[in-house]
Design brief:
Structural class: mainly beta
Number of helices: 2
CATH architecture of the largest domain: Beta Barrel
Distance between the termini: 30 Å
Helix content: under 10%
Largest sheet: 8 strands, antiparallel
Strand content: 25-35%
Number of domains: 2
Length: 282
């Protein structure tokens, strides 16, 4: 985890060999439902491995958060990606690098941060978006995340209207929760449901982020995001049908509490800063 005086980003330091971090807080195990949602293991400035989440936009392009691709002004030393629902199940503790290099489901890639990302230096306008260009394809069965049209979320600039008209499905591999302290389980893909709380440009939101509900409850909440879910998708739920779509309207970015509850903030993919960065790679 990296912090600033204001925010706590939602990447997680992964300690291989100990109990690894899990995922979306108090959500549901995802199984094979989102083969286009991946986990990242990466090192930055000689340290790692850290853990994040992301979405395959095509067979070899991963959408994630900027802080999952760069740290301290330097692009990741190494980045590995897997869409396996339980990506460390076959790790036997004999060295993480050798494991990644010999794995049949981990693929190495080149991290590409947004050119204006600078460790949240421009906060609240964070530019916290990045890509990973993979050295080989990952098979998803043909399902991929898609970008929204520019300005897709602008109609939600207030909190008016039923919550069912502004819901998203969040998916990730991060920490299951912090109550009880650092609650963990298997390192697997989870999903939950969050509500967009409005796009008003508050001190924490600026022009780049959207505030989401994060109400895990005590095992009976709808779910939210926590450390390790950074870069993971918020899939739009069509209010007309109630069905989840493949449209990624935002990626998990940061929270303002250490308990992974209350609210969190996600980087919008429908703004020009995101669209102009991502689309040339597709």
């Amino acid at each position: 985890m990296r912090t600033t005086p204001v925010i706590a980003s939602t990447a997680a330091a992964l300690v291989i060999g100990a109990t690894a971090a899990q995922a979306v807080t108090w959500g549901e195990p995802d199984g094979e439902d989102h083969p286009h949602v991946v986990t990242l293991l990466f090192s930055q400035q000689g340290e790692g491995y850290y853990s994040c989440s992301g979405t395959l936009l095509d067979e070899d392009t991963v959408l994630t958060a900027g802080h999952c691709t760069e740290g301290g002004g330097q692009v990741n030393d190494a980045t590995w990606v897997s869409n396996h629902p339980d990506p460390l199940a076959d790790y036997e503790g004999d060295g993480i690098v050798a494991f990644l290099e010999s794995s049949d489901h981990w693929v190495q890639g080149q991290a590409v941060p947004h050119p204006d990302y600078d460790d949240y230096a421009a906060f609240p306008d964070t530019y916290d978006i990045g890509l990973v260009e993979l050295a080989g394809a990952i098979d998803t069965g043909g399902v991929y995340g898609t970008l929204p049209e520019e300005g897709f979320l602008d109609a939600l600039m207030t909190r008016k209207g039923a919550t069912s008209t502004r819901q998203v499905v969040v998916v990730g591999y991060g920490l299951q929760g912090t109550v009880p302290a650092f609650y963990q389980d298997d390192y697997v893909r989870y999903r939950g449901t969050s509500t967009i709380m409005g796009l008003g440009r508050s001190t924490n939101q600026g022009t780049h982020t959207v505030q989401m509900s994060n109400t895990p409850g005590k095992g009976n909440g709808s779910g939210g995001t926590c450390f390790g879910d950074s870069g993971g998708p918020a899939f739009w739920v069509d209010p007309a049908t109630g069905l989840e779509t493949t449209t990624v309207v935002a990626v998990t970015s940061f929270g303002i509490t250490g308990q992974c509850a209350g609210t969190d903030f996600q980087f919008r993919t429908d703004i020009p800063e995101a669209q102009e960065f991502v689309r040339p790679y597709l």
